[in-house]
Design brief:
Radius of gyration: 19 Å
Helix content: 25-40%
Order of helices and strands: EHEEHEHEEEEHHEEEHEH
Number of domains: 1
Strand content: 15-25%
Structural class: alpha/beta
Number of helices: 7
CATH topology: Spore Coat Polysaccharide Biosynthesis Protein SpsA, Chain A
Number of strands: 12
Largest sheet: 9 strands, mixed
CATH class: Alpha Beta
CATH superfamily: Spore Coat Polysaccharide Biosynthesis Protein SpsA, Chain A
CATH architecture: Alpha-Beta Complex
Length: 270
């Protein structure tokens, strides 16, 4: 596979720099012979990682950060030359080997079918049908929120650029981005394998269900991250981010349930 055909873009921000070292250490372990160049998108900080061919793209070189998420991501994509880009987020902490042969198969699929805009490497749970050319994948045919998704995916870079609004946040991209899909013939594919809680047969095997305690949620560092790093021999120094424990999650769900239970009766309270 040509190494200039695809790039890996890790979308991040200065606030989440605690995640960078363990993220790239895990990626180096579980994708040790990656042929592609890596890019890190963040506002103003610089970063290097031993053993990784990494270019940092800064959206802002000043002390006051004004660029919005969407504007910064679009500018970053314009600086990448490859026709395909694998989009990852900074807290997708790998737990098993990347399935390189399957990834190569996905790139070949996109080379052979120019209507494919993206292949997501997890099962996206909205309306879909089988992709006849490859039974491991589905076509997302329901045009609704989360058809544009920030789970790990292989994107046709030029199409991704057109689908991002300068004013986007990550949430508006996923919830409103489907309104920007202009052609019904364009194909959005997702793997039939993998979910937020299951990494079996996943091209990029990471877990995102918040109750499992891996990654970052709501800007906070989840409780099982260090356990994963220790298991993989990764030493992480002091974490600056606010931590979020299992007890915090229980309290979060408890107060949400309490609010939902009380809400219908608030009309009677004067």
């Amino acid at each position: 596979m040509k190494d200039d055909l695809c790039s890996v873009l890790v979308n991040s921000c200065d606030k989440y720099e605690d995640a960078w070292y363990p993220f790239f250490e895990l990626l180096k372990k579980y994708w040790y012979d990656c042929p592609f160049k890596f890019y890190l998108n963040t506002e103003s900080k610089n970063y290097e990682h031993k053993g990784i061919d990494l270019t940092v793209i800064n959206g802002c070189h000043c002390s006051i950060i004004t660029e919005k998420w969407g504007e910064r991501l679009k500018k970053c994509l314009k600086k990448i030359d490859s026709p395909y880009v694998i989009l990852l987020l900074d807290d997708f902490f790998m737990q098993k080997e990347v399935l390189e042969d399957e990834l190569e198969s996905c790139i070949t699929m996109m080379e052979n079918d120019y209507e494919i805009i993206v292949i997501y490497f997890k099962n996206i749970h909205i309306g879909k049908t089988n992709y006849e050319s490859n039974g491991k994948y589905n076509i997302i045919n329901e045009n609704r929120k989360y058809k544009l998704n920030l789970q790990a995916g292989l994107w046709r870079k030029a199409d991704l650029e057109t689908l991002i609004s300068d004013d986007d946040s990550p949430w508006s991209f996923e919830e409103n981005g489907h309104f920007r899909i202009s052609s019904p013939s364009k194909k959005f594919l997702c793997s039939r394998a993998g979910s937020h809680t299951n990494i079996k047969n996943c091209v990029f095997p990471y877990l995102t269900a918040r109750n499992l305690g891996f990654g970052i949620w709501n800007g906070k560092w989840l409780w099982n991250n260090e356990k994963l790093f220790r298991k993989n021999g990764i030493k992480v120094d002091d974490i600056k981010m606010e931590r979020f424990s299992k007890i915090d999650l229980f309290c979060h769900y408890f107060f949400r349930l309490k609010e939902k239970t009380i809400a219908p009766f608030k009309i009677f309270i004067k």
